[in-house]
Amino acid sequence: MGSEFKNTMDEYFKSESFKKIIEDAVQNAVEKKFKEMEEKVKHLEEENEKLTNQIDDLEQYGRRNNIKIYGIQKVDPKNLEKEVVKEINEKAGASIVSSQIEACHYLDKNKTSVIVRFVSRKTRDDVYYLKKNLKGTRISITEDLTKKKYQLLKECQKHFEKRSLWTKYGVVKLHLNGKVHNIKNMKALEDLKKMKRNTQ
To answer: Domain of life of the organism in this record (predicted)?
Structure first.
């Protein structure tokens, strides 16, 4: 009886049905483990993205008193602040004085752009608001964006007209279909691209 049972079990263990059971069990175990790992990786990626965005937002907040100016006459760096005050007052219609500027310097060796840091955000906002008066002049003003936010803006400009895009405190804004949309990340951009296609 024992020998017969052993032979039966041996045959069963060698059978295709048993092999299939083992293969399915192994496959299910591997798939389950793989799915768990995928979920962990996805969670870590989401956490990393969240932390990266928080750090980027903090960096942008640190630039809240800054603007970038393009087209300022090239002058000796020691006279740059005086030139910035003169140009902005004359061409944008501002009424700032040197004491309202904390720092300013050229951003590149060719002196094509200047970064200006104001003592207060109110002064910065007042000057930034007047940038519309610079249309048709050689001077333009932009926000001082982080690298990540600048790259997002450039990507947005590939898909939407520049005149319908602007930034406010580092957030890309888009006027589309009669509404103003905030574009804070690539997902938001992809959603708006789909919206644009659906309305064409």
So the answer is: Eukaryota
CA–CA separation, 142 vs 127, rounded Å?
11
pLDDT digits (tens, 9 = 90+) for 40-86: 988 898 899 899 999 999 999 999 999 999 999 999 999 999 999 99
Contacts 24+ apart (CB under 8 A), 84-90: 84/114, 84/116, 87/139, 88/127, 88/130, 88/139
Q: Where are the domains of the chain?
A: 2-60, 64-144, 145-200
pTM over 0.90: no
Q: Which residues contact 109 (CB under 8 A, 6 or more apart)?
A: none
Q: What is the DSSP string of 88-140?
A: IIIII-----GGGEEEEEESSTT--EEEEEESSHHHHHHHHHGGGGGTTSS-E
The DSSP 8-state label assigned to residue 162 in this structure reads G
Contact (Cβ atoms closer than 8 angstroms) between residue 94 and residue 126: yes
Architecture of the 64-144 domain = 2-Layer Sandwich (3.30)
The token pair at 88 is 């902005």
Residue 153 in tokens: 């803006």
